[in-house]
Amino acid sequence: MADLAKIVEDLSALTVLEAAELSKLLEEKWGVSAAAAVAVAAPGGAGAAAPAAEEKDEFDVILTGDGGQKINVIKEVRAITGLGLGEAKALVEGAPKAVKEGANKAEAEEIKKKLEAAGATVELK
After folding, report:
1. Which residue, 14, 51, 83, 117, could crosslink 19 as a Cys pair with Cβ 3.0–4.6 Å?
2. How far apart are CA 79 and CA 85, in angstroms?
3. Angle at CA 3, nearest 5°, toward 41 and 30?
């Protein structure tokens, strides 16, 4: 049991990206997916389990427009991304463009809220 406790402790220390990579490696190694395990674990309720298994955990924040507030949106894009003025301006003028890719749900919602407060129109994909 001490070895299992150590494994649990090590897994708890993983970042979200590391945990996702571990999941992919285990799926490849054993030829199964986490979605299949959920469906097998809940016989008769597989239809109810399917939407939960398909819930996204990574989102792309897409700037779709500046809403007539180009300067404010450029400032916010710079603050979020760390881009220089020229790169942020090009991103805003080239909309629709991704401001952040692979963000978790909370981070994506926060970025969306900040950009919308600056006047931008934003989508999460």
Report:
1. 14
2. 10
3. 40
Residue 39: its H or E element: helix 34-41
For the question of whether the overall pTM of this predicted structure is more than 0.70, the answer is no
Strand partners, 100: 61
Query: CB under 8 Å to 49, separation ≥6 — which residues?
Result: 38, 39, 41, 42
Q: Per-residue pLDDT for the chain (125 aa), expressed as one digit of tens each? A: 668 888 888 888 878 778 788 878 888 888 776 555 455 555 554 444 445 545 677 888 999 999 889 999 899 989 988 888 998 899 899 989 888 888 888 888 999 999 999 999 999 88
**For residue 15, how many C-alpha atoms fall within 13 Å in the half-sphere facing its CB?**
3
Which DSSP category does 43 fall into? T
Which residues does 119 contact at the CB level (< 8 Å), separation at least 6?
Answer: 66, 67, 68, 69, 72, 73
Tokens of 102: 């692979």
Q: Quick one: tokens of 105?
A: 């749900």
